[in-house]
Amino acid sequence: MAVQRLPTLFQIAVDLVILTIRDDRLHVLQVVRGKDPFLGGRALPGGFVRLPEGLEATALRELTEETGLDGSTLHLEQLRTYIAADRDPRGPVASVAYLAIAPNLPTPVAGTDAARAHWEPLDDAGRTADPLAFDHDQILVDGLERARAKLEFTPVAAAFCGSTFTMTELRRVYEIVWGVPLDPPNFHRKITGTSGFVVETDAHRALGAGRPARLYRRGTAKSLHPPLLRP
Amino acid sequence: MAVQRLPTLFQIAVDLVILTIRDDRLHVLQVVRGKDPFLGGRALPGGFVRLPEGLEATALRELTEETGLDGSTLHLEQLRTYIAADRDPRGPVASVAYLAIAPNLPTPVAGTDAARAHWEPLDDAGRTADPLAFDHDQILVDGLERARAKLEFTPVAAAFCGSTFTMTELRRVYEIVWGVPLDPPNFHRKITGTSGFVVETDAHRALGAGRPARLYRRGTAKSLHPPLLRP
DNA sequence: GCAAAAGTGTTAATGTTACACCCATGC
DNA sequence: GCATGGGTGTAACATTAACACTTTTGC
């Protein structure tokens, strides 16, 4: 049998696509890199795994460090793993990408490591104004497509909203993430007709003009039957 | 700022959930381990990444070594990445799982490394008779669920079939993977009505009794609109 | 009252389901 | 002919889509 070379040893980075909606536009959290490689360049937030900390724990730690968000209110899921040879001079690095969906917070970005972090708006194609370091442009595209697909089959859109929200706010999430207008009456019926998507509260919210909108909370459903397909 | 510990160095294994249909039942490729840990136990086939070989290349190499399949005819996609501390005495190991869907081949399993490999039938819950080593039972469950979901939205069911197939063969794929019966006339219309799913050929195939079935080839569609949802 | 935003009613178009029935073959 | 599996027709039913219209507020 042929002599087998030893397996490569990798550092494993967890990189985060953190999406939120601000001012009716989709934004991604971006950091300005403070060290080589790509010093001064834009990148997704991320950090290395140090056992016994697992992937999810690393992702949550990075997330709270960079945004001050607490992980209990947001949606976090693994996207996929990327290996790029020569992507880092320190040696072989694998990147496990995570997608996080966060509500728009009163505290935009704060904390110790977060001085270099900011919310960057995305254009209709899901790209930032400046290209990102490493293969982070590809990770961002994959993350956005995952988010768009997940809205069809799960109630994850509510993760973009606060603890209570109006039907119009929820509809705006779909319209902004998908980039298409939706019919308000039909949307309202579709959501309220899907058991467990939202729970009606007795509270209402007025925007100044017009009839005040009823507020809803997130329901317990984990998936949508039937799905809410993109037009 | 606090002193930061060094990132953990990992070996990265690619583990494969290779599904096929034999004798009207779903099977997964299983190996009997030839070394520690779990010597003599059942596991999914897999191997370590050695740069410059990437994840996909490692998966394809393992696949051909274990099954003799050539990668051009089958479907291969990344599932997700698992990190389990203490899963291997040789040190920290991350597992990047891939899902492969293969047609039932005349050559069942052959080749140098494949002596210990065999097709293991799955029960209705998607489990093998004996538990698998490491966290491979979980990976198998995740792979099966991904396959079931993918059948709804993509034409990947054809990857279970040969280069040409009858409508009934394709329908059996859905019935076996989902574990539900489907109405043959409606299935036929649904598939032929989805442009790009299959391409009609002039050939037919007879099974002895009954009207010979038309043969189809795979089309070029990458997704199904509208989807073919599980009942 | 009037404008604005939320929510309901109604109908046509579309898609799904169930199943009766015809077609093409082996024996 | 007759059994068997492939394939088409058709009508009931459910879902979706479009949009008119009513409700409830601020000014």
UniProtKB/TrEMBL annotation, chains A, B:
Keywords: Hydrolase
Pfam families named among the record's database cross-references: NUDIX (PF00293), WHD_NrtR (PF21906)
Hydrolase in keyword set: yes
Domain Nudix hydrolase: 9-145
CDD domains cross-referenced by the UniProt entry: NUDIX_NadM_like
Stretches of the chain forming a coiled coil according to its record: none
UniProt cross-references to Gene3D superfamilies, sorted A to Z: Nucleoside Triphosphate Pyrophosphohydrolase, Winged helix-like DNA-binding domain superfamily/Winged helix DNA-binding domain
InterPro entries: NUDIX_hydrolase-like_dom_sf, NUDIX_hydrolase_CS, NUDIX_hydrolase_dom, WH-like_DNA-bd_sf, WH_DNA-bd_sf, WHD_NrtR
Protein name: NUDIX domain-containing protein
Species of origin: Catellatospora aurea
